[in-house]
Amino acid sequence: MKDRRRSTGIAETSPPVEAPRKRRKRAYTPNHLIWETFTLVMYYVPAVVGVLLVLVFLVQFPMEPKADPSFTPTGIAPEWYFLAMFQVLKKMPLLPAVSLIGAYLMAVMFLPFIDFSRVKSGQSPLLKIIGWLNIVVIIYFTAWGGHWLENYIYPLLKIKMDGH
Fold first, then answer.
1. How far apart are the C-alpha atoms of 79 and 152, rounded to whole Å?
2. Distance from C-alpha of 35 to C-alpha of 49, rounded to nearest angstrom
3. pLDDT tens digits for 44-68?
4. Which one of 5, 91, 125, 142 is CB 3.0 to 4.6 Å from 83, fit for a cystine?
């Protein structure tokens, strides 16, 4: 049996059902970024500045003497991979030492472009000699800067250091 109201076009009226409102997504870039910047400026920056001001006024630290950049106290040394450069800087005047280190780094960087030797094996004898010489020089200066020569190598070879 067919529903008569449907076939005649008559339907019961019911209140319209509202679709649930979709929450509008906010764009991340302007909205979230502005809100986070506001939070940072209004809350975190004053909090950090306030803590630092409290420490400045409540905790008294003694004044230390000014640092002397030309003097390195005994016992202070850089990490082992900087010992070779540190030793060069320590034993030479500043300008020639910095110039020497810069020229060395530029030469190492441009060496593959400078070597024009034609070898069928693909290994240049010039590059091989320069590479081994670099390794020996860097190991020597690193050992010298780390005092490994005086403490370990020279006693093994029974070499006496003058002035020690």
1. 19
2. 21
3. 999 999 999 998 888 887 788 888 8
4. 142
SS (H, E, C) the chain: CCCHHHHHCCCCCCCCCCCCCCCCCCCHHHHHHHHHHHHHHHHHHHHHHHHHHHHHHHCCCCCCCCCCCCCCCCCCCCCHHHHHHHHHHHHCCHHHHHHHHHHHHHHHHHHHHHCCCCCCCCCCHHHHHHHHHHHHHHHHHHHHHCCHHHHHHHHHHCCCCCCC
What is the C-alpha separation between 102 and 108, in angstroms, rounded?
10
Residue 125 makes CB contacts below 8 A (sequence gap 6+) with 117, 119
Residue with tokens 């670099």, as numbered in its chain: 134
Which tens digits make up the pLDDT trace of 95-146? 999 999 999 889 888 887 776 666 666 677 777 888 899 899 888 888 887 7
pTM comes to 0.45
CA distance 161 to 121: 45
Nearest to 83 by CA among 160, 16, 161, 149: 149
